[in-house]
Amino acid sequence: MESRNHPTLKAASLLFVYFAAMAAGMVELSLAAGYLTGINPVTPGLVIAGVATLTAGLAFLAWSLWGLHRNSLIFARYAVPALAVAAAAHVAVMAASVSTQRSLDVSHLAALGLTLMALAGAGWLRRQHKTNDGGAHGQPRTGRLLAAAFGAAVVVATVATPGLAASMAGQHAVPHGEHGQSPDGKNGQGSNPALDPGRHH
Q1: Can you tell me the distance from the alpha carbon of 63 to that of 4, in angstroms, rounded to the nearest whole number?
Q2: List of residues 6+ apart from 8 with CB closer than 8 A
Q3: How far apart are CA 172 and CA 182, in angstroms?
Q4: Would you tell me how many other CB atoms lie within 10 Å of the CB of residue 116?
Q5: Residue 42 region, left (φ>0) first, then alpha (ψ -120 to 50), else beta?
Q6: Average pLDDT in the chain
Q7: Tens of pLDDT, residues 73-83
Q8: Cβ atoms 164, 31 nearer than 8 A
Q9: Angle at the Cα of 58 (from 38 to 25), degrees rounded to 5?
Q10: N or C, where is the chain less crowded by C-beta within 10 Å?
Q11: How far apart are the C-alpha atoms of 45 and 51, rounded to whole Å?
């Protein structure tokens, strides 16, 4: 690839990294909710896991939002090892789940995939910065960058959506078609006298 195209590639890669990190942060927060407020009795192990995933989720979100604001790969020296540790933690949890429960935790799998996406992209960007500027002083092409951003968002959402749906928050979410219904399955409008057209003051 010619050097004049590198700014677009680097800008697209940066968006991909932060999109993946942001989605990973949301999955981490959903995992933390399951650990800390789930149906299982709270144990010291669950509290530690909940605090760890809560911290990771907030850190991922803060890193991605600040990085998007700065339009650069920030704290790369610390972010790459932190992403690697998070990925290793998810692998360990999934291995334990498979060995003890004979099941694969979809939320941890999604978080692992998103973390590896961010790790791979951050590693590539960091290596590009060390080797050469890759045309960094040029301007990315807007059309290609928008297309790349759309593609990155689709890929990240494809991985994040099943992970969020499999979490405790996703399992207890009210389906979109049932928001206006009462527990007996009827339209919830009649449950509020103020909203019932058949009632008059």
Answers
A1: 28
A2: 140, 141, 144, 145, 148
A3: 16
A4: 19
A5: beta
A6: 80
A7: 999 999 999 99
A8: no
A9: 75
A10: C
A11: 10
pTM of the predicted structure, to 2 decimals: 0.75
pLDDT at 103: 77
Q: Which two tokens stand for residue 149?
A: 């951003």
Using CA atoms, how far residue 13 sits from 22, 74, 110, 153, 195, in Å, is: 14, 14, 20, 12, 50
**Phi, psi at 172, each rounded to 5°:** -100, 5
Q: Of 114, 112, 128, 113, which Cα lies nearest the Cα of 11?
A: 128
Structure token pair of residue 29: 């927060």
Provide the β-strand partners of residue 198.
none
String of DSSP letters for the chain? --GGGHHHHHHHHHHHHHHHHHHHHHHHHHHHHHHHHSSSPP-HHHHHHHHHHHHHHHHHHHHHHHHHHHTS-TTHHHHHHHHHHHHHHHHHHHHHHHHHHS---HHHHHHHHHHHHHHHHHHHHHHHHHH--TTTTS---HHHHHHHHHHHHHHHHHHHHHHHHHSHHHHTSPPGGGTTB-TTSSBGGGGSGGG-TT---
Give the pair of three-digit tokens for residue 78. 């610390």
CA distances from 92 to 77, 85, 86, 131, 194 (A): 24, 11, 10, 34, 53
Per-residue confidence band for 68, with pLDDT thresholds at 50, 70 and 90: very high
| CB-CB contact of 20 with 114 (8 Å) | yes
